[in-house]
Write a structure and sequence with these properties.
This protein is mostly helical and about 200 residues long. Helix content is about 60%, strand content about 0%.
Length: about 200
């Protein structure tokens, strides 16, 4: 017994211009749907959808879920998208103005906005504030310090005040090693010195 395997018909992709041409043939030249199906190779439901969309666009309705076929409706869609983008940017700026103080860095402002408004994407915020995303992610990295490091920073600050800020790196290391806190033999943790 031989088995017959049906090969699946390849799906044809049509550009907006091709769809518009076929729809015009159906509406203006009175071609039937069957003729267009035969000419184009598209399915009957797709051809019917093109015709309905073209008739709706001629009557002034802009399609909501698909791309417009006629140039007028394409322009309307483009303008609506630009308007939406402007309104969203305006909304973001209004909320950011209420969240942050003037003179605050953009990095801190975006971090605060991310916590306060989960509806905005970091990409949107960075584009609006003209901030490269790479520098945002570099700045916002969580640099949490452990308890030992926090205790070391506190001890260094306290020692610096006691000795009148006269200790350098070597003397501060000797002072740290005399306490129960331990440092590495060659050099202390470099990430703690910029915060002193």
């Amino acid at each position: 017994m031989t088995q017959i395997i049906k090969s699946r018909k390849e799906r044809a992709n049509f550009t907006i211009e091709q769809k518009l041409d076929y729809a015009k043939l159906m509406v203006n030249e009175n071609y039937s749907n069957k003729k267009i199906v035969a000419i184009s190779g598209a399915g009957p439901s797709a051809v019917t959808r093109w015709k309905k969309q073209y008739l709706a666009e001629i009557s002034g309705q802009t399609p909501k879920s698909s791309k417009a076929m006629t140039p007028e409706q394409q322009e309307i869609q483009s303008l609506k998208k630009q308007l939406w983008r402007s309104q969203r940017d305006n909304e973001i700026l209004k909320k950011s103005n209420s969240l942050v103080r003037s003179g605050q860095s953009k990095h801190i402002m975006i971090a605060k906005m991310n916590r306060a408004c989960k509806q905005y994407k970091t990409k949107e915020l960075c584009q609006l504030l003209k901030l490269p995303r790479s520098s945002y992610y570099y700045q916002v990295k969580d640099k949490s310090l452990n308890d030992n490091t926090n205790a070391m920073i506190k001890f260094i600050k306290q020692t610096a005040i006691e000795v009148g800020h006269t200790y350098g790196k070597r003397r501060m290391r000797v002072s740290l090693n005399s306490r129960p806190l331990k440092t590495t033999p060659n050099k202390p943790n470099p990430s703690i010195f910029p915060t002193i």
